[in-house]
Amino acid sequence: MDPVSQAALGAITARSVAPADMAKGVLIAGAALGAAPDLDVVFSIGGDFFDTLKHHRGVTHSLIVLLALGPLAGHWLWRRFGDGLRWRRQHLWWLAVATLALLSHPLLDGLTTYGTQWLAPFSDRRFAVNAMPIIDPVFTLILLGGLAAGIWLKSPRRRKASALAALALSCAYLAYGWAQNREAAQFAAAQLETEGVVDYELSAFPTILQVHYRRIVVRTPSEVRVGYYSTWLPCAIQWGRASRAGPAAASALAATDEGRTFDWFTMGWSFPVVQPLANGFQVTLNDLRYGATLDPGESFFSIGARFDAAWRLLAPPTGRGFSPDQDRLDFKTLFDAAYFSECPSAAAEFTPT
Question: Is the pTM here over 0.85, yes or no?
């Protein structure tokens, strides 16, 4: 998720774990450690698009690595900030503060669609729960509210209580986001059943800035469907459809090293689009998890390459990825779709049986 949320969660976690009378350096250390795993961006300096895919949310987001680094960071913090008659008792608390603040980062990232390598360096498997968007103002405000209350309150015990309340409320909100995704997937499956679709693979993914509007992706043996569903008001999902590419086109780009990296990044949710050219083909692999339209061939992340008529690669594949902005995503349209007061005229209300 965004750096502000990560730092705020680290600070709230640290304040919730530490004893009420252990105040010196706790919030600052928690915020720094909560944001620290994203320093992996330095691994991609000087690299290309594929280096970024490989290194971000990798070893610095590993639960195994951070469980080892946490006590080391805690020991240093104890030497730096521990004081008073309870100095030795604070050692254990600093170990817990540092370790849990660090772990808060990959655990939160794992609730988003991007995927997080929790088991690196022993496995490059990506984990994603699809509960939350990468930016959610409500979640961030819950954390910042808990920090603000802690600064305003004078009593150490009340400061700790405000942090615990913010942590509990933020966790409840994360669980709510997970429930929204599950509801969206169940709704889509029920609608597909009424449409006579039985052989399919389906997943729901969060969109941006809120938890109620979900992107639904369905793959059948012959086509890919993309639709959107608001848990705020259950309306029949309107599908955008595209035929699946033939075997040669589907494997051409996916069989390259870059294609395999991209498919690993998309966790298997890549979709090839083929454009015939005068002397060959342009093939694009799109990440079905991200997009702003009903077009399965439109994505915020994609790679592409040109092939000749015999499907020989003409140049190394290139990739692109970016955050949605006003050119790609109209935020007013997004919120209107998520929180409309009635179903669009083209979509009759649908109630699963």
Answer: yes
